[in-house]
Amino acid sequence: MTSKLREQQAIPVRVPLLNGIMGYRVSLIRQNTLREFSNVRSAPDLKRFVAGQGHDWPDFQILEHNGFTTLGTSNYDIIIELLKAGRIDYFPRAAHEAVVEAKSLNDPDIIIEPSVLLYYPSYMFFFVSQSKPELAQRIERGLNMARQDGSFAALFEKYISFKDIEKALKLSERTVLKLNNPHLSEATLEATASEAQQLEVVQ
Questions:
Q1: DSSP class of residue 19?
Q2: Closest Cα to residue 111, out of 49, 26, 174, 200?
Q3: Distance of alpha carbon 37 from alpha carbon 130, whole angstroms
Q4: N- or C-end of the chain: fewer Cβ atoms within 10 A?
Q5: Could you report the per-residue pLDDT of 63-81, keeping only the tens digit for each?
Q6: Rounded Cα distance, 140 and 56, in Å
Q7: What torsion, rounded to 10 degrees, do the Cα atoms 57, 53, 24, 191 define?
Q8: What is the widest separation between alpha-carbon atoms in the chain?
Q9: Which residues, other chains included, contact 79 with Cβ-Cβ below 8 Å and sequence gap of 6+?
Q10: Are 37 and 29 in contact (CB under 8 A)?
């Protein structure tokens, strides 16, 4: 996931690899808290609950920047255990991740919260060593060719289907809470402007 810091450390290839889907967040919650979450209509409503995230994930910083109470820990399994134990109330995941993980956990006490969608612009890029600018240019050229001839979209759809995700999660029917991502550089905002406009459709 890109950030201003990472873009200072290496050369970003500013072609979004996952079409911005990492910015669509639904939450894993405990079944017995479903009624409490059904009353969430705004960011202040959700801020009454405690989120769990990896302490070194960009998402942790984004949630904190937007005023959400967030408990950071070292890995995914610990976050799930904290959720089960009631130490945290919800675990925001990218939409495609939540569908797979809820199925994988196979735990009737852990479900996907059905009514809220967190959204913030978030992009996955390839990063290349600063000593290899020609490699970055070659990757960018190849990715743009794949986008233009349709092969990029075909490959993406093979692994992540927006249509299937919408069907499973009903994203367009959810209350959308838009958050600010302070870690995007001006160059990235400019390069992803068209993607951001497309993502607005679901909102």
A1: T
A2: 26
A3: 45
A4: C
A5: 999 999 999 998 999 999 9
A6: 27
A7: -10
A8: 54
A9: 52, 53, 54, 73, 88, 91
A10: yes
Average pLDDT over residues 149-174: 92
pLDDT > 90 fraction of the chain, expressed in percent and rounded: 86
Which tokens in the block code for residue 122? 């978030």
The pTM of this model reads: 0.89
Residues in the chain: 203
Distance CA 19, CA 16 (A): 5
Tokens of 115: 């009514």
Q: In the structure encoding, which two tokens stand for residue 17, read together?
A: 């690899």
